[in-house]
Amino acid sequence: MSLYSRLDHYLEEHSDDAGPVRGHLTLPRIGMIWLAANLVVTTLLTGTLFVPGVEYGLVVLLIVVGTLIGAAVLVTVGNIGTRTGLPTMALTRGPFGTRGSLLPVTANVVILMGWSWVQAMLAGIALNFMVESVTGFSSPVLFAVLCQTLVVLLAIFGHTGIAKVEPWLAVLILGIIAYIFVVAFSTYTPAQFASIPADPTLGYTPILVLDIVIATAISWTVLSADFNRFARSGKAGIVGSGIGYTLSTVISMTVGATAIAFVLLSAGEAIPFDPVTIVAPFGAPLALVIFLSVMATNTMVVYGMVTTVVNAVPGVQKLKFLPTALILGVISIVGATWFGLLEQFTTFLVTIGALFAPVFAIMIVDYYIAKRGVYTADILRAREGRYWYLAGVNWAAVAVWLIGAVAAYVFTYLWPTPIGATIPAFLLTFVLYLLVSMRERSSAPAGRSSHLLDAERTPAPHA
Known about the structure:
The structure is a single chain. The chain is mainly α. The chain has a domain at about 25-310 and about 320-345: Hydantoin permease, CATH 1.10.4160.10. Helix content is about 70%, strand content about 0%. The protein is built from 20 helices and 2 strands. The chain has a two-stranded parallel ribbon. Helix 7 packs antiparallel against helix 17. It is globular and about 65 Å long. The protein starts with a helix and ends with a strand. The mean pLDDT is about 85.
Protein backbone atom coordinates (compact mmCIF):
# COMPACT_ATOMS: atom_id res chain seq x y z
CA MET A 1 0.00 0.00 0.00
CA SER A 2 1.40 3.42 -1.02
CA LEU A 3 1.95 6.28 1.39
CA TYR A 4 -0.97 8.16 -0.22
CA SER A 5 -3.27 5.15 0.23
CA ARG A 6 -2.27 4.72 3.88
CA LEU A 7 -2.85 8.40 4.56
CA ASP A 8 -6.18 8.32 2.74
CA HIS A 9 -7.27 5.31 4.80
CA TYR A 10 -6.21 6.96 8.06
CA LEU A 11 -8.06 10.18 7.29
CA GLU A 12 -11.23 8.32 6.30
CA GLU A 13 -11.22 6.65 9.71
CA HIS A 14 -10.49 9.80 11.72
CA SER A 15 -12.44 12.54 9.94
CA ASP A 16 -15.69 13.84 11.42
CA ASP A 17 -18.89 12.28 10.12
CA ALA A 18 -22.20 14.04 9.52
CA GLY A 19 -24.04 11.30 11.37
CA PRO A 20 -25.29 11.92 14.93
CA VAL A 21 -22.84 11.71 17.83
CA ARG A 22 -23.35 11.49 21.57
CA GLY A 23 -21.72 14.54 23.14
CA HIS A 24 -19.59 14.43 26.28
CA LEU A 25 -17.93 17.88 26.57
CA THR A 26 -18.59 19.87 29.74
CA LEU A 27 -19.78 23.48 29.96
CA PRO A 28 -16.26 24.88 30.64
CA ARG A 29 -14.83 22.92 27.70
CA ILE A 30 -17.52 24.18 25.28
CA GLY A 31 -16.95 27.68 26.62
CA MET A 32 -13.21 27.48 25.97
CA ILE A 33 -13.76 26.14 22.44
CA TRP A 34 -15.95 29.13 21.59
CA LEU A 35 -13.67 31.55 23.39
CA ALA A 36 -10.72 30.31 21.35
CA ALA A 37 -12.58 30.14 18.05
CA ASN A 38 -13.46 33.84 17.81
CA LEU A 39 -10.25 35.31 19.22
CA VAL A 40 -9.23 35.78 15.63
CA VAL A 41 -7.75 38.55 13.51
CA THR A 42 -10.87 39.08 11.38
CA THR A 43 -13.01 39.79 14.45
CA LEU A 44 -10.31 42.02 15.91
CA LEU A 45 -9.89 44.00 12.69
CA THR A 46 -13.64 44.33 12.29
CA GLY A 47 -13.47 46.58 15.35
CA THR A 48 -11.06 48.88 13.49
CA LEU A 49 -13.76 49.64 10.93
CA PHE A 50 -15.96 51.49 13.40
CA VAL A 51 -13.68 54.22 14.80
CA PRO A 52 -13.70 57.17 14.09
CA GLY A 53 -16.87 56.74 12.02
CA VAL A 54 -18.79 56.39 15.30
CA GLU A 55 -17.83 57.59 18.79
CA TYR A 56 -15.59 55.13 20.66
CA GLY A 57 -17.92 54.73 23.68
CA LEU A 58 -20.94 54.10 21.47
CA VAL A 59 -18.97 51.59 19.42
CA VAL A 60 -18.19 49.54 22.53
CA LEU A 61 -21.88 49.60 23.52
CA LEU A 62 -22.98 48.53 20.03
CA ILE A 63 -20.44 45.70 20.04
CA VAL A 64 -21.92 44.36 23.28
CA VAL A 65 -25.56 44.73 22.17
CA GLY A 66 -24.99 43.31 18.67
CA THR A 67 -23.01 40.38 20.05
CA LEU A 68 -25.78 39.48 22.51
CA ILE A 69 -28.41 39.61 19.75
CA GLY A 70 -26.32 37.47 17.42
CA ALA A 71 -25.38 35.06 20.19
CA ALA A 72 -29.08 34.36 20.81
CA VAL A 73 -29.37 32.97 17.28
CA LEU A 74 -26.05 31.12 17.57
CA VAL A 75 -26.92 29.25 20.77
CA THR A 76 -30.46 28.45 19.59
CA VAL A 77 -29.20 26.78 16.42
CA GLY A 78 -26.32 25.18 18.35
CA ASN A 79 -28.80 23.62 20.78
CA ILE A 80 -30.42 21.72 17.88
CA GLY A 81 -26.99 20.17 17.32
CA THR A 82 -26.72 19.20 20.99
CA ARG A 83 -30.18 17.58 20.99
CA THR A 84 -29.77 15.68 17.70
CA GLY A 85 -26.02 15.13 17.52
CA LEU A 86 -25.98 16.54 13.97
CA PRO A 87 -23.80 19.35 12.51
CA THR A 88 -25.35 22.55 11.19
CA MET A 89 -25.42 21.75 7.49
CA ALA A 90 -26.88 18.29 8.10
CA LEU A 91 -29.67 19.97 10.06
CA THR A 92 -30.67 22.02 7.01
CA ARG A 93 -32.12 18.82 5.56
CA GLY A 94 -34.99 19.21 8.05
CA PRO A 95 -36.49 22.39 6.59
CA PHE A 96 -35.01 22.39 3.08
CA GLY A 97 -35.17 18.70 2.22
CA THR A 98 -32.49 16.13 1.50
CA ARG A 99 -31.58 17.70 -1.84
CA GLY A 100 -32.72 21.22 -1.04
CA SER A 101 -30.15 21.40 1.75
CA LEU A 102 -27.43 21.45 -0.91
CA LEU A 103 -28.32 25.12 -1.51
CA PRO A 104 -27.30 26.37 1.98
CA VAL A 105 -24.45 23.82 1.99
CA THR A 106 -23.05 25.35 -1.20
CA ALA A 107 -23.45 28.87 0.19
CA ASN A 108 -21.68 27.74 3.37
CA VAL A 109 -18.68 26.34 1.48
CA VAL A 110 -18.35 29.58 -0.48
CA ILE A 111 -18.52 31.65 2.71
CA LEU A 112 -15.97 29.45 4.51
CA MET A 113 -13.65 29.69 1.52
CA GLY A 114 -13.92 33.47 1.66
CA TRP A 115 -13.11 33.44 5.38
CA SER A 116 -10.05 31.27 4.76
CA TRP A 117 -8.78 33.70 2.11
CA VAL A 118 -9.29 36.77 4.29
CA GLN A 119 -7.55 35.23 7.30
CA ALA A 120 -4.60 34.06 5.21
CA MET A 121 -4.17 37.52 3.69
CA LEU A 122 -4.23 39.22 7.08
CA ALA A 123 -1.75 36.75 8.54
CA GLY A 124 0.48 37.27 5.50
CA ILE A 125 0.38 41.07 5.90
CA ALA A 126 1.26 40.84 9.60
CA LEU A 127 4.08 38.35 9.00
CA ASN A 128 5.40 40.43 6.10
CA PHE A 129 5.54 43.51 8.33
CA MET A 130 7.64 41.71 10.92
CA VAL A 131 10.02 40.20 8.35
CA GLU A 132 10.36 43.48 6.48
CA SER A 133 11.19 45.37 9.67
CA VAL A 134 14.11 43.00 10.28
CA THR A 135 15.35 42.08 6.78
CA GLY A 136 13.90 44.66 4.43
CA PHE A 137 12.30 41.91 2.31
CA SER A 138 8.62 42.47 1.51
CA SER A 139 6.09 40.23 -0.26
CA PRO A 140 2.64 40.11 1.42
CA VAL A 141 1.29 37.76 -1.25
CA LEU A 142 4.13 35.28 -0.71
CA PHE A 143 3.63 35.26 3.06
CA ALA A 144 -0.15 34.89 2.64
CA VAL A 145 0.44 31.83 0.45
CA LEU A 146 2.91 30.38 2.96
CA CYS A 147 0.47 30.93 5.85
CA GLN A 148 -2.42 29.32 3.96
CA THR A 149 -0.24 26.39 2.86
CA LEU A 150 0.60 25.75 6.51
CA VAL A 151 -3.11 26.01 7.39
CA VAL A 152 -4.04 23.43 4.73
CA LEU A 153 -1.37 21.02 5.98
CA LEU A 154 -2.61 21.45 9.55
CA ALA A 155 -6.21 20.92 8.42
CA ILE A 156 -5.24 17.62 6.80
CA PHE A 157 -2.74 16.30 9.31
CA GLY A 158 -3.21 18.17 12.56
CA HIS A 159 -6.79 19.35 13.00
CA THR A 160 -7.33 17.22 16.10
CA GLY A 161 -4.15 18.61 17.63
CA ILE A 162 -5.22 22.17 16.88
CA ALA A 163 -8.63 21.46 18.44
CA LYS A 164 -6.92 20.31 21.65
CA VAL A 165 -4.38 23.14 21.94
CA GLU A 166 -6.72 25.92 20.75
CA PRO A 167 -7.98 26.69 24.30
CA TRP A 168 -4.39 27.06 25.47
CA LEU A 169 -3.66 29.35 22.54
CA ALA A 170 -6.68 31.36 23.67
CA VAL A 171 -5.11 31.83 27.10
CA LEU A 172 -1.89 33.08 25.49
CA ILE A 173 -3.81 35.40 23.15
CA LEU A 174 -5.87 36.78 26.04
CA GLY A 175 -2.66 37.54 27.93
CA ILE A 176 -1.27 39.50 24.98
CA ILE A 177 -4.60 41.32 24.52
CA ALA A 178 -4.49 42.32 28.19
CA TYR A 179 -1.02 43.77 27.56
CA ILE A 180 -2.42 45.81 24.63
CA PHE A 181 -5.21 47.23 26.82
CA VAL A 182 -2.69 48.11 29.53
CA VAL A 183 -0.46 49.94 27.03
CA ALA A 184 -3.41 51.76 25.48
CA PHE A 185 -5.04 52.97 28.70
CA SER A 186 -1.81 53.74 30.51
CA THR A 187 -0.85 56.00 27.61
CA TYR A 188 -4.22 57.71 27.17
CA THR A 189 -7.18 57.99 29.52
CA PRO A 190 -10.63 56.55 28.77
CA ALA A 191 -11.87 60.13 28.51
CA GLN A 192 -9.38 60.79 25.71
CA PHE A 193 -10.60 57.72 23.82
CA ALA A 194 -14.21 58.86 24.29
CA SER A 195 -13.36 62.37 23.06
CA ILE A 196 -12.30 61.25 19.57
CA PRO A 197 -14.79 63.04 17.27
CA ALA A 198 -16.98 60.93 15.01
CA ASP A 199 -16.40 61.32 11.28
CA PRO A 200 -19.68 60.56 9.45
CA THR A 201 -17.99 61.01 6.06
CA LEU A 202 -16.42 57.55 6.52
CA GLY A 203 -19.85 56.02 5.89
CA TYR A 204 -20.36 54.20 9.18
CA THR A 205 -23.46 54.79 11.27
CA PRO A 206 -24.49 53.20 14.58
CA ILE A 207 -27.04 51.03 12.73
CA LEU A 208 -24.43 49.78 10.25
CA VAL A 209 -22.07 48.97 13.13
CA LEU A 210 -24.84 47.00 14.85
CA ASP A 211 -25.63 45.12 11.62
CA ILE A 212 -21.98 44.17 11.07
CA VAL A 213 -21.62 42.91 14.65
CA ILE A 214 -24.76 40.78 14.28
CA ALA A 215 -23.56 39.52 10.88
CA THR A 216 -20.34 38.36 12.56
CA ALA A 217 -22.40 36.14 14.88
CA ILE A 218 -24.42 34.88 11.91
CA SER A 219 -21.19 33.94 10.13
CA TRP A 220 -20.17 31.83 13.15
CA THR A 221 -23.59 30.21 13.47
CA VAL A 222 -22.82 28.05 10.43
CA LEU A 223 -20.50 26.12 12.78
CA SER A 224 -22.59 26.36 15.96
CA ALA A 225 -24.15 22.89 15.81
CA ASP A 226 -20.83 21.44 14.58
CA PHE A 227 -19.24 22.45 17.89
CA ASN A 228 -22.23 22.15 20.21
CA ARG A 229 -23.23 18.64 19.13
CA PHE A 230 -20.30 17.50 21.27
CA ALA A 231 -21.77 19.14 24.39
CA ARG A 232 -22.78 16.83 27.22
CA SER A 233 -26.11 18.61 27.77
CA GLY A 234 -28.24 21.44 26.49
CA LYS A 235 -27.11 23.60 29.40
CA ALA A 236 -23.45 22.96 28.62
CA GLY A 237 -23.97 23.87 24.98
CA ILE A 238 -26.16 26.94 25.50
CA VAL A 239 -24.32 28.51 28.43
CA GLY A 240 -20.86 27.49 27.28
CA SER A 241 -21.24 28.75 23.72
CA GLY A 242 -23.15 31.85 24.82
CA ILE A 243 -20.50 32.95 27.30
CA GLY A 244 -17.54 31.85 25.17
CA TYR A 245 -18.74 33.51 21.98
CA THR A 246 -19.88 36.71 23.70
CA LEU A 247 -16.64 37.18 25.61
CA SER A 248 -14.39 36.46 22.64
CA THR A 249 -16.29 38.74 20.26
CA VAL A 250 -16.61 41.66 22.68
CA ILE A 251 -12.93 41.39 23.65
CA SER A 252 -11.66 41.01 20.08
CA MET A 253 -13.74 43.79 18.53
CA THR A 254 -13.11 46.13 21.45
CA VAL A 255 -9.36 45.65 21.24
CA GLY A 256 -9.58 46.41 17.51
CA ALA A 257 -11.55 49.61 18.16
CA THR A 258 -9.14 50.52 20.97
CA ALA A 259 -6.06 49.89 18.84
CA ILE A 260 -7.28 52.08 15.95
CA ALA A 261 -8.30 54.79 18.46
CA PHE A 262 -4.79 54.58 19.98
CA VAL A 263 -3.33 55.20 16.53
CA LEU A 264 -5.60 58.24 16.08
CA LEU A 265 -4.63 59.65 19.48
CA SER A 266 -0.98 59.12 18.58
CA ALA A 267 -1.53 61.20 15.40
CA GLY A 268 -0.86 58.20 13.20
CA GLU A 269 -2.54 57.25 9.92
CA ALA A 270 -5.54 55.12 10.88
CA ILE A 271 -6.19 52.73 7.99
CA PRO A 272 -9.15 50.44 8.87
CA PHE A 273 -8.87 46.68 8.51
CA ASP A 274 -5.10 46.88 8.05
CA PRO A 275 -2.97 44.73 10.38
CA VAL A 276 0.11 46.92 9.87
CA THR A 277 -1.69 50.00 11.18
CA ILE A 278 -2.27 48.45 14.60
CA VAL A 279 0.80 46.17 14.71
CA ALA A 280 3.18 49.11 14.26
CA PRO A 281 2.47 50.79 17.65
CA PHE A 282 2.17 47.53 19.61
CA GLY A 283 4.91 45.53 17.89
CA ALA A 284 5.61 41.80 17.92
CA PRO A 285 3.04 40.80 20.60
CA LEU A 286 0.09 41.87 18.43
CA ALA A 287 1.67 40.32 15.33
CA LEU A 288 1.96 37.07 17.30
CA VAL A 289 -1.75 37.28 18.22
CA ILE A 290 -2.66 37.64 14.54
CA PHE A 291 -0.47 34.75 13.41
CA LEU A 292 -1.51 32.31 16.16
CA SER A 293 -5.21 33.12 15.79
CA VAL A 294 -5.09 32.49 12.05
CA MET A 295 -3.25 29.20 12.42
CA ALA A 296 -5.76 27.93 14.97
CA THR A 297 -9.03 29.25 13.60
CA ASN A 298 -8.31 29.02 9.88
CA THR A 299 -7.24 25.40 10.27
CA MET A 300 -10.67 24.56 11.68
CA VAL A 301 -12.37 26.65 8.95
CA VAL A 302 -10.62 24.72 6.17
CA TYR A 303 -11.27 21.40 7.91
CA GLY A 304 -14.94 22.31 8.38
CA MET A 305 -15.19 23.22 4.71
CA VAL A 306 -13.81 19.85 3.66
CA THR A 307 -16.06 17.84 5.98
CA THR A 308 -19.08 19.85 4.79
CA VAL A 309 -18.41 18.84 1.18
CA VAL A 310 -17.58 15.23 2.06
CA ASN A 311 -20.77 14.80 4.09
CA ALA A 312 -23.08 16.92 1.91
CA VAL A 313 -25.46 14.07 1.01
CA PRO A 314 -26.45 11.37 3.54
CA GLY A 315 -26.57 7.66 2.94
CA VAL A 316 -24.57 7.58 -0.30
CA GLN A 317 -20.98 6.92 -1.25
CA LYS A 318 -19.15 9.91 0.18
CA LEU A 319 -16.38 11.84 -1.50
CA LYS A 320 -13.00 10.85 -0.09
CA PHE A 321 -11.53 13.20 2.49
CA LEU A 322 -7.93 13.47 1.21
CA PRO A 323 -8.55 14.33 -2.46
CA THR A 324 -11.35 16.72 -1.44
CA ALA A 325 -9.00 18.39 1.06
CA LEU A 326 -6.25 18.70 -1.53
CA ILE A 327 -8.56 20.25 -4.15
CA LEU A 328 -10.18 22.72 -1.73
CA GLY A 329 -6.77 23.39 -0.17
CA VAL A 330 -5.25 24.39 -3.51
CA ILE A 331 -8.24 26.69 -4.19
CA SER A 332 -7.82 28.28 -0.75
CA ILE A 333 -4.08 28.84 -1.34
CA VAL A 334 -4.61 30.41 -4.77
CA GLY A 335 -7.47 32.55 -3.46
CA ALA A 336 -5.23 33.90 -0.69
CA THR A 337 -3.48 35.98 -3.37
CA TRP A 338 -6.70 37.94 -4.13
CA PHE A 339 -6.03 40.91 -1.86
CA GLY A 340 -8.85 42.91 -3.42
CA LEU A 341 -11.27 40.96 -1.20
CA LEU A 342 -9.99 42.89 1.83
CA GLU A 343 -11.38 46.09 0.32
CA GLN A 344 -14.82 44.46 0.18
CA PHE A 345 -14.87 42.99 3.67
CA THR A 346 -17.89 44.96 4.85
CA THR A 347 -19.82 43.83 1.77
CA PHE A 348 -18.68 40.27 2.47
CA LEU A 349 -20.11 40.41 6.01
CA VAL A 350 -23.37 41.95 4.81
CA THR A 351 -23.67 39.17 2.20
CA ILE A 352 -23.24 36.52 4.90
CA GLY A 353 -26.01 38.14 6.93
CA ALA A 354 -28.30 38.33 3.91
CA LEU A 355 -27.75 34.67 2.99
CA PHE A 356 -27.73 33.01 6.39
CA ALA A 357 -29.90 35.07 8.76
CA PRO A 358 -32.97 33.82 6.82
CA VAL A 359 -31.59 30.26 6.82
CA PHE A 360 -31.30 30.24 10.61
CA ALA A 361 -34.74 31.80 11.05
CA ILE A 362 -36.15 28.94 8.96
CA MET A 363 -34.16 26.32 10.90
CA ILE A 364 -35.36 27.62 14.26
CA VAL A 365 -39.01 27.67 13.19
CA ASP A 366 -38.75 24.26 11.56
CA TYR A 367 -37.18 22.43 14.48
CA TYR A 368 -38.72 24.11 17.53
CA ILE A 369 -42.20 24.86 16.15
CA ALA A 370 -43.05 23.02 12.92
CA LYS A 371 -41.37 19.72 13.91
CA ARG A 372 -42.08 20.29 17.63
CA GLY A 373 -38.51 19.55 18.71
CA VAL A 374 -38.23 16.30 16.74
CA TYR A 375 -36.02 15.27 13.84
CA THR A 376 -36.52 11.58 13.10
CA ALA A 377 -33.97 9.12 11.74
CA ASP A 378 -35.30 9.87 8.24
CA ILE A 379 -32.96 12.87 8.23
CA LEU A 380 -30.12 10.38 7.73
CA ARG A 381 -31.66 8.86 4.58
CA ALA A 382 -30.50 9.71 1.07
CA ARG A 383 -33.97 9.29 -0.44
CA GLU A 384 -37.63 9.14 0.56
CA GLY A 385 -38.85 9.62 4.12
CA ARG A 386 -40.15 12.65 5.95
CA TYR A 387 -37.54 15.08 4.61
CA TRP A 388 -37.91 14.16 0.95
CA TYR A 389 -40.74 16.66 0.42
CA LEU A 390 -41.10 17.13 -3.40
CA ALA A 391 -38.26 15.32 -5.18
CA GLY A 392 -36.01 16.03 -2.20
CA VAL A 393 -36.73 19.77 -1.96
CA ASN A 394 -39.02 21.77 0.31
CA TRP A 395 -39.80 24.53 -2.17
CA ALA A 396 -41.70 26.55 0.43
CA ALA A 397 -38.53 26.88 2.53
CA VAL A 398 -36.48 27.78 -0.55
CA ALA A 399 -38.99 30.48 -1.55
CA VAL A 400 -39.07 31.97 1.96
CA TRP A 401 -35.27 31.93 2.06
CA LEU A 402 -35.09 33.87 -1.22
CA ILE A 403 -37.60 36.41 0.06
CA GLY A 404 -35.59 36.86 3.28
CA ALA A 405 -32.29 37.24 1.41
CA VAL A 406 -33.76 39.83 -0.98
CA ALA A 407 -35.31 41.67 1.97
CA ALA A 408 -31.91 41.84 3.68
CA TYR A 409 -30.44 43.39 0.54
CA VAL A 410 -33.32 45.87 0.21
CA PHE A 411 -33.14 46.86 3.90
CA THR A 412 -29.40 47.43 3.52
CA TYR A 413 -29.12 49.36 0.28
CA LEU A 414 -32.57 50.61 -0.82
CA TRP A 415 -34.83 51.15 2.20
CA PRO A 416 -32.65 51.30 5.33
CA THR A 417 -34.60 50.70 8.54
CA PRO A 418 -34.02 52.23 11.99
CA ILE A 419 -32.87 48.82 13.27
CA GLY A 420 -30.68 47.80 10.35
CA ALA A 421 -31.19 44.97 7.87
CA THR A 422 -30.38 41.70 9.64
CA ILE A 423 -33.04 41.87 12.36
CA PRO A 424 -35.96 42.80 10.03
CA ALA A 425 -34.92 40.18 7.46
CA PHE A 426 -34.67 37.54 10.19
CA LEU A 427 -38.08 38.43 11.64
CA LEU A 428 -39.74 38.56 8.19
CA THR A 429 -38.37 35.13 7.30
CA PHE A 430 -39.35 33.75 10.72
CA VAL A 431 -42.98 34.87 10.32
CA LEU A 432 -43.31 33.78 6.68
CA TYR A 433 -41.94 30.30 7.31
CA LEU A 434 -44.06 29.99 10.45
CA LEU A 435 -47.15 30.67 8.35
CA VAL A 436 -46.29 28.18 5.58
CA SER A 437 -45.26 25.43 8.03
CA MET A 438 -48.16 25.51 10.49
CA ARG A 439 -50.02 22.78 8.59
CA GLU A 440 -47.03 20.47 9.00
CA ARG A 441 -46.89 21.19 12.73
CA SER A 442 -50.31 19.62 13.29
CA SER A 443 -48.98 16.25 12.10
CA ALA A 444 -45.59 16.42 13.82
CA PRO A 445 -44.92 14.11 16.79
CA ALA A 446 -43.93 15.82 20.04
CA GLY A 447 -40.87 14.84 22.01
CA ARG A 448 -37.09 15.01 22.11
CA SER A 449 -35.31 14.04 18.90
CA SER A 450 -32.39 12.71 20.91
CA HIS A 451 -34.65 9.87 22.09
CA LEU A 452 -35.56 8.96 18.53
CA LEU A 453 -31.98 9.05 17.30
CA ASP A 454 -30.33 7.24 20.21
CA ALA A 455 -30.04 4.05 18.21
CA GLU A 456 -28.17 5.92 15.48
CA ARG A 457 -25.84 7.95 17.67
CA THR A 458 -22.18 7.11 18.12
CA PRO A 459 -19.58 8.38 20.59
CA ALA A 460 -17.99 11.69 19.67
CA PRO A 461 -14.77 11.07 17.68
CA HIS A 462 -12.67 13.63 19.49
CA ALA A 463 -12.62 15.89 22.52
